[in-house]
Predict the structure of Methyltransferase domain-containing protein.
Amino acid sequence: MSKSLPQPPERGGDASTPAILDRVSSAADPLQHSASRLSSRAQHTQRDAVDGNDSNSSHEGNADSAYASDSVTAFTASATSSIFHYRFENGRRYHAYRAGQYLLPNDAQEQERLELQHYIWRLLLNGRLYTAPLPSPSRSPNMRILDLGTGTGIWAIDMADEFPSAAVAGVDLSPIQPEWVPNNCRFHIDDYEDTWTYSRKERFDYIHGRALGGTSSNWHRFYRQVMDNLKPGGWVEMHEYDACIYSQDDSLDRAPCTKEWMHKLDSASKQHGKQINVARFHKEWIAKAGFRHVREDVHMIPIGSWARDPFLKELGRLEFIHMQMSVDSHTPALFTRILNYSSEQAKDLMEGVKRELRNRDLRLISCYRVIIGQKAGDCTYN
């Protein structure tokens, strides 16, 4: 492929990286806050009850990092405990609400992967949570922020901490977010494939989505809804990675299991009606939806510690762990439900892919993309 690995970004302070699941060394802010939660937050994802409080309750200015009490949980849903009646298969756990719409698991192992992915994104973006030109927290006291496919909620929580006077909402099919969160952050169990019902007064200043490949059957409709629910001048930002592996030499040709896995993963997701390898299309979709100032930044990350540059070497070490976990999470349901693989056949292919990822003679690469676009108009943040 023609794209080369990126030059490492300028970084201040300690160049080492924080602990990731006890696998790498510790470091200083701004990433320490996220990293410190990676191995512990998954313990706080189970709920005994569902709070049906109004999801549009007011968020007062000067909201600090205080956390919700038992009487005011951060979780809201118009559902019953049936959303916890998870589906178990192939040793993994899957969501119950709108069962089968999303074919990746939601168990502790997957939550750990999502937390690691969050840290990789922050490291890649030099500690930032976003790249859109948002105003500083002190200049945006009434900003409304929406996180689509929030997962464990870690991005929404970090964003709520960074913008303590903003109202941050996270939406997902799975109730795997912690109860104890900043008091300006709320989570809702919902399907953003449905028609959005926010009123004009509830429009958002900023809408964020991460790793949403395989979640939508109609991306043009998705971006129309994003456009309709942004305030004038509001921003959309998507953080996506290609469900594909690259190389700059013949490494991919020497990884037959990986090539087979990539092809069949994409084929299965298409048959399911929600293609997973769509990151490369988001820039075009956002532009066609009518957004202006559309920009895409592409980051190529080594899988493994083979890069010479210390920053890329560390990124690659983390991406290697992430890819091993991704193979385990992306394969079982798509291959057994859609392609009619037996559990043993799926396991054999997964082991083959992970074996190739461990091969130090192969220099494989992941591709991460950041895409932003702005709705026309002037944003007043009120």
Notes: The two ends are 46 Å apart (CA to CA).
